[in-house]
Amino acid sequence: MAKIKFSNPILNLFAELYRSSLRKIYGIICLISFIRKPNKKNWAFPVHYVQGTFSDNVFAVFEKVKSNPEIKKIIFTKKKKIDLTDAENVEFANVFSLKGLLKLSQCGVIFIQHTLLLDYALRWPFFAVALLKRTIGVNLWHGIAIKQIRASHPNPKDTEEHEHFKMIISSSKVDKLVMISAFNPIKPQRVFVTGLPRNDFLLISENKLPAEYLSQLYFIDKIKGSKKLIVYAPTFRDSKTYYPFSDNELNRLKSLLKEHNAILGFRVHYFDFATRNQFLALVDNELFFDFGQNVINDMNLIIRKSDLIITDYSSLYVDAMLLNKPMISFAYDLENYRDVERGFYYNFETVFPGNIHSTFTDTLETLELFFQNKYQINSDKYNSIKQLFFDFTDSENTERVLGEVTKLIQKYD
Known about the structure:
Strand order of the largest sheet: 3-2-1-4-5-6-7
CATH superfamily of the largest domain: CDP-glycerol glycerophosphotransferase, N-terminal domain
Low-confidence stretches: none
Strand content: 5-15%
Distance between the termini: 34 Å
Oligomer: single chain
């Protein structure tokens, strides 16, 4: 826990007593988690640690088991209310409460989409490690890694959990190698090729989507109407610096959208509040729209309705390939991002199937070609990249994950 210092020494004394008390309480809860065996029928699901939304891979898994009365599904929430339909044997626990910590310590299966520390608001790494040693920790992550993450990150943090996950999922045999590297020192046999559960939402028919998602799709349809939807979704940058669009560039983009009966939706990374505000200032709800996570929970819903994806290095383009969507990379800082800021697991030029541009003008020209039905993407390269990232292109990813979880429950019972 970060220490807050006050100018008043008495306040500092009380603050230290408070921190000391919390450490003791955590120690007691940690001890309980060792004494009392976790229940393998208690499954923990986290909401998003920043937005508080219930989405992505964890929601896809929940959807498959929500009607199973034998599994107690405990959703660890923050402040945001979670509305669910047709769910049985579900509890909600405040992730910040002591009661929530006690409930978490009694879950035999814990699903994770970032780290246990982040997803469940834990304050000390030792408690996360203690839980993972006693439970079946399943890290579903939140995408296919193109840029370097976790242990491969230039400045890795909170890697103590890695070797204690019982299961990490991946999308292909090649992606498995990346996840082994990212979660080093995880044992390779604990990384499973299952496909990503959230991608089932891309591939199933629209009428089979959860009610919570259908309402968001209708929202997109209402905005889109008969227009083409262009999505601009830049990846997160540690530097918090993004392309500074000039007024002239924005006007040229608006003119092109108007000319071709199109709109543009911004999907800015949830973790960068300053940049989100920068893009929100451009939203006019006529040509530019906000499609952030607080508006549309799951990016895959936007992909379903999009006509073209513009990104830089966000791996959402990989998911979009399942629906054969066209894409452009506006990679204005490719060399810096690759060599200085973050780095990639792959040669980016090799694994991106569309045009890669370093200038706004070139990007706009390709966008115009798309509107004119003249944007040609090499189909052989596209299919080869798809095969690289996906061992499965069906809608059974969640079933494969649950099959492996069932085996783990039997193994550790």
